[in-house]
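Long-time lurker. I teach an intro course on protein structure, and each term I like to show students one example going from raw sequence to a predicted 3D structure in token notation. This year I'd like something fresh instead of my usual example. Would anyone be willing to generate the tokens for the chain below so I can use it in lecture? Attribution to the forum is fine with me.
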Amino acid sequence: MMETLYQLTNVAHAYGERQVLQIDTLDIRQGEILALVGPSGAGKSTLLRLLNFLETPTHGRIQFQNQASQPMPLHLRRRVTTVFQRPFLLNRSVSANVRYGLRLRGRRDHTHAVEKALEQVGLHEMARQPARTLSGGEAQRVALARALVIQPDVLLLDEPTANLDPQNVALIEKIITQLNQEQGTTLVLVTHNIFQARRLAQRAALLMNGRLIETAAANDFFHHPTQPQTAAFIRGDMVY
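-- Reply from a regular --
Happy to contribute to a lecture. Here you go:
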């Protein structure tokens, strides 16, 4: 049985007077792919920011690798990284963008690691190309390589294939699957694409109005949901 990597207990988060997240309990298991689905404004991206320790919850506790200190120690925060829907790339070469995270960590022996990451995402031949000349799909793969090169324990993905062509979607999904299967990386995937969640996830969770409606193994979640809101969302009904 997989060990628990994250444990969220009575976690609430608000911006001013507006509460955007209220999760009674959520466990994320080491080595799994967990898909977070739900309508826009459900709190999915906010949850990712909490999981990456970019923000501290207004209330409640987030325990990571058996530690619950706030703020989380730097050496643990560095075990988690995020690939955002619209990646920000530095006005440098592709390889310099991938190398950036290693340099922040004081690593000098980065040449082989950068080359390997670029090979993983199919961009080795573009290493010297200016990053800002890339297509949307290529830029997203650079952002993914920048995450892979630091070998995180947890990779958080916020709509990583939104607005990409089918070829780039397939490439990124293949990378995600290999990363999980070959390196045991824990992945939390936010997606509006139900079919993508079915293809990739071992478990899935539905967020609506900041609340966790249902979490279950992917087969049960998509084929035998226990909550009517989940069934309606999967059918594509307007439940929000």
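Some talking points for your students: The beta strands are 4-15, 18-29, 33-37, 59-64, 80-83, 154-158, 186-190, 203-208, 211-217. The CA atoms of residues 79 and 152 lie 5 Å apart.
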